[in-house]
Structure formats: structure tokens, C-alpha cells
Amino acid sequence: MQVQENISLKPYNTFGIEAGARHFTVLNNREQLAEITEWPGAKHIIGGGSNILLTRDVEGLTILNKLQGIEKIKEDAQHVWLKTASGEVWHQLVMYAISHGWAGIENLALIPGTVGAAPMQNIGAYGVEVKEVIEEVTCWHWEEQRYITLNNAQCRFGYRDSIFKHELKEKVFITDVLFRLNKQPVFNTSYGAISQELERMGATELSIKAIADAVIAIRTSKLPDPKVIGNAGSFFKNPSVSKLLYDELQNRFPGIPSYPINETHVKVPAGWLIEQCGLKGYTMGNTGVHEKQALVLVNKGNATGKEIWELSEKVLQTVQEQFGITLEREVQTW
Fold first, then answer.
1. Could you tell me if 132 and 44 lie in one domain?
2. I need a labelling partner for 207 at 20 to 30 A (CA). Which of 7, 54, 135, 308 fits?
3. Residues 314 and 282 grouped into a single domain
């Protein structure tokens, strides 16, 4: 294991925040895990750096995950099982599956980050959550110094949530995810603008590639490229509110959209709430709310993580004051 000292993390986070790592190493193979385990103090994992906000220099050991590999474990008439290393780029896995005609993750195209973040966040988009195709998650347990495998139920998936954010937070490192993909696709085009985009593209035949192409076009049109302007994609979760509160809000705001969750709760788009507060395109110092997508906070220059955090606080407070709804941050803060 090669450990470097006082390394800039600016190239490793999509916000482009300047922060330092006291100690830094690159994980290229599983054999290094035993040695890394012996390192004293806290351990911090960076994959694609697309879901973190660095508000300070990072003490302990920062580990850049570069574990690679996609392996077909088994298949039957309906499904194929892919064991995928956590350092693989998520979008590349989506494209790999599409190239082989395996369905289930095409709606999740162009989500930034690595495979290891997928179960942790239970990433989702356009009516699909990754929990629907995850069979198992394999982790290295730092304290027990052994691998553990959790099945889908044990991962305790929720909306942008999992056990890896709670009981197992900082206790395990996800090394592999086993996905069960479908040989016969079940197309999901009802959420968002997929159907309209397919029509605009002149797609005459529905396929997983056509859906992925539509998703990519939509995301590209709405979300800023981190290579152009620093951001971490959607900064806030869509809140769940009671139908009672929603009915009250609907009287005050007749156009308020919602998506059903169950008999008692609905989901309200956080972007809509932020936009109604007049914050879309809002600038505060070196930071701002993106002018095309109010869910996205951006680094307009040399913003610090603290500045972006303060902007997120303003968004939270403004939405709370106007709607009585408490937003949650989706991005992890270090």
C-alpha cells in the first residue's frame, strides 16, 4: 500500500472543492484491504466523488476506490446475474448491460458515480430504483477484518437510503454488487418526460437503448456538466408529505405536483418547491442554484464547501418557511 500525504482532493470531487487529505491511497485490488485495515484512525472512501461535499480538510486515510471487474456469474431463461466491482463507473455498467440486451437499469443511465455508491444511496431516476435489481452486496468489514454479504432485504433499502448510511456507516466498505438483470425487458416510460423525449427523437421501436438515449438526452438538457461547472447533481431529496398536508398546500398552491407513495403519503418534487420560492438561478457569493434545475447547487468559481453548505441552509429555511416542508440533503457532507 502506497500512502501519500497532504494530497489535494479537488480532482476527486465533482463540486471542484479545494480540500486536503492528510493521508491518501489508491485501492486497486482486494489484497490491499487487509493492509489498509491496519491503518489507524478513520477511513474515508471516494469513488466518483459525485455525491460528497467537502467542508474541511479530511483527517485519517482517504481511499480512492479503483476496484474493477464485471463478471457474469450465472443465467437462466429470464435473468442474468452480474457481479460488479464497486469501483466501476455506474454509467459504463449501464451501457455494458444495454450492449448485451440486459434490462433493468436503462432508466438509470448517466447517473454519476461508481457502482459502490449505487446500493448505499439506492440511486433512482425516472420511476426506477436500483434496489429492484440488486441481489446481494458484498462488503469488507473493517473491524472484523472479513467479508460479509447482505441480501436485498438485509440492505434495508429506502428512498435514497440503505443500511450503509446507518448501522453499517463507516464500518464496512462495499467491494462488489450482484445485479439480477432481465433478458425480457419491462419498459418503464411513464415517469417524467421519457415518452415525450422518445417521440421527439423519432423512436419508432421501443427498446432499452432507446429509453437510455432518452434519459441521457433529458439529463444532459437539465443537469450541468461537472467538468464545466462544479456540482453534485441533485442536492436535495424529494420530500414525502402526508396527504393531509398536501391537501392544505393544494388549496394555497393549486399547481403543486405530487407522486403517490401509499394511502397516506405523497412525494412532492423538491425542485418545484425551490423554484416556487424564487431560488432557481439564485446566486450567493461563489455559489448558486442552477438556472435550469433548482435541485442542483453549483460552484460558480472558487467556492468553499462551507459556502455551498450555507446556500443549502438558505434553501432549506426558505422552503420550510413557505411550505412547512423540511427538505433533506441527498449529498453526503464531509
1. no
2. 135
3. yes
**pTM, rounded to two decimals:** 0.90
The one catalytic residue among 160, 162, 197, 329: 160
Contact 133, 118 (CB under 8 A): no
The domain of 169 spans 70-182
240 catalytic, yes or no?
no
Torsion of CA 149, 151, 156, 162, to 10 degrees: 50
Q: Could you count the other beta carbons within 10 Å of the beta carbon of residue 138?
A: 17
Nearest to 9 by CA among 66, 47, 37: 47
Q: Give how far Cα 99 sits from Cα of 133, 185, 210, 266, Å.
A: 17, 13, 12, 36
Is 162 catalytic? The answer is: no
**Does 259 lie in the same domain as 316?**
yes
Look up 200 and say whether it is catalytic: no
State pLDDT tens for residues 26-41. Answer: 999 999 999 999 998 8
Q: Is residue 215 part of a domain?
A: no
Taken in order 182, 188, 194, 200, the sign of the CA dihedral is positive
Of the residues 162, 234, 312, 329, only one is catalytic, namely: 234
Residue range 128-160, pLDDT digits in tens: 999 999 999 999 999 999 999 999 999 999 999
Catalytic choice (106, 136, 307, 330): 330
Residues of the chain with pLDDT > 90, as a percent, come to 90
Q: Is 140 exposed, middle or buried (0-12, 13-18, 19+ CB in 10 A)?
A: buried
Confidence tier at 216 by pLDDT (50, 70, 90): very high
The answer to whether 109 and 216 are in contact (CB under 8 A) is yes
Write the CB contacts of 167 (distance below 8 Å, at least 6 apart in sequence). none
Residue 83, strand partner residues: 71, 178
Do the strands 20-27 and 58-65 form a parallel or antiparallel pair, or are they unpaired?
Answer: parallel
